Amino acid sequence: MTRRVRRSELATPASNDRMFAKAAGSGADLVFLDLEDACAPAEREAARGKAARALRDLDWGRTTRAIRMNGVDTRWAHGDVIEVVTGAREALDVIIVPKVRTARDVWWVDVLLTQLEETLNLRKRIALEVLIEETEGLQNVAEIARSSDRLEAIIFGAGDFSAAQGAQVDTNFDPIVDYPGDIWHYARSRIVVAARAAGIDAIDAPFPNYRDPAAYRAAARQAAAMGYAGKWAIHPGQVGVANEVFAPTPEEIAHARRLVATYREAEAGGLGATGLDGMLVDAAHLRLAENVTSRAELLGL
Questions:
Q1: pLDDT, mean of residues 91-114
Q2: Which helix (H) or strand (E) holds 45?
Q3: How far apart, in whole angstroms, are the C-alpha atoms of residue 203 and residue 188?
């Protein structure tokens, strides 16, 4: 599996080609051209060609290039995959599969991609990310997380999940009454545990209120604290916040490296635990520190 940076995943309507260049230059770690909810049904088939040309012709720099296809239970799914992959070829890195309910949904896309890659003689494999936005999908998330070796990330889709659960929320997917804590904590916890157990990333939900960067930052920090690797952005203005929140700070990196060095020195002396700055340091702390240093290396920090 390719290790990718996913601090920010920016949504861009595949039908609106005027937004493509701005998305490509947004600094997002991943941009997906959306053939699903961001496209009116009458525009979805025409949007495939626009997406393929943008993926192929624009300068995306280090940004991972993706599409969100339509769900496997819709009439657009088959054509989305075939037309965009055929048109974009190696310029497409990832396909996001929405409304995944079972492992079989992922298997369907995986098999179709395998046939296309062989037919087109593509030099690289296209990766997958999946959206958990149905209650059935959350029930099956552990099996979904291990359903394909193409799968690199699981995304929490709070919007459709709200509808699937019958929740009473506002347009930012927040509860309309005072609610103790995070109404989506259970769903977020199950998703991040399933993802980490399978060795893949978990990505947090979109935040529709793009005019409130402070609230977006707070939501991103909570997700990062839980172990999420990144968060969706529905506006370019959210990208910089996500990129900052989901990257370790210089102080965190320095402390983690110092902790690793201290532990290794103690280990070489036959000790299983030691102290640093008045705090116990043992093997559990080493794993936490190595999470930080590994992420810093991935980000080139």
A1: 98
A2: helix 44-57
A3: 9
Give residue 3's pLDDT: 87
Cβ 294 vs Cβ 242: under 8 Å: no
Which residues on adjacent β-strands are paired with residue 231?
8, 204
Residues 246-292 have pLDDT tens digits of 999 999 999 999 999 998 988 888 888 888 888 888 899 999 999 99
- pLDDT over threshold 80, residue 1: no
Mean pLDDT score of the chain, rounded to an integer?
95
Distance CA 151, CA 90 (A): 18
- 3-state secondary structure at position 275: strand
Give residue 41's identity as a one-letter amino acid code: P
Q: DSSP assignment of 204-239, as one string?
A: EPP-S-TT-HHHHHHHHHHHHHHT--EEEESSGGGH
DSSP structural state of residue 261: H
DSSP state of 63: P
**For the residues of 89-128, what is the DSSP string, one character each?**
GGG--EEEEPS--SHHHHHHHHHHHHHHHHHHT-SSPPEE
